[in-house]
Input
Amino acid sequence: MKKQLLILCTLIITQSISLKAQKICFYNGKIYTVDARSSIAEAVVVENGRILFVGSTPEARAAWSDSRTKMVNLEGKLMLPGFIDNHTHFADGGMYLSGIDLRSAKSTIEFKTILKKYADSHKSEWIKSGNWDHESWEVKDLPTKEMIDDITKDSPVFIDRFD
Output
């Protein structure tokens, strides 16, 4: 699983680098510019992560249609600026896939049952991830070491709350 995640990350990074290095002309579209004076354009040209041109399709094709520019016909479709979440937990997301999932637990008993089942099938392995939320439990008791010692005695535990 870790190897697959590493390969996926490498492919994503490689693809984003190769796209960044190429000049691309997007034309024949409805491009939302986030500019109050001119909020819609037909074409945009980008290279190395920078916008070189915003305007009409005829202007873009006349000025940017060459052998070094990839031409992308948007066929009248809407193009929006990238929505970027600067608060990401990319590594945590990958680690979540290789650990225990405790989000479905709605009580201390369910929490312990899920944990025991996982511990039994992963003898002497680290138990990590979790994403538990005691606020959704009937009785909102925080989990404690003593609560799980008897079911995880052969495995080290490092589980976290969902937030």
Q: What stands out?
A: The first helix runs from residue 2 to 20. The radius of gyration is 25 Å. The domain at 22-79 is CATH 2.30.40.10 (Urease, subunit C; domain 1). Strands lie at 23-27, 30-32, 40-41, 43-47, 50-55, 69-73, 78-79, 100-101, 127-132, 157-161.
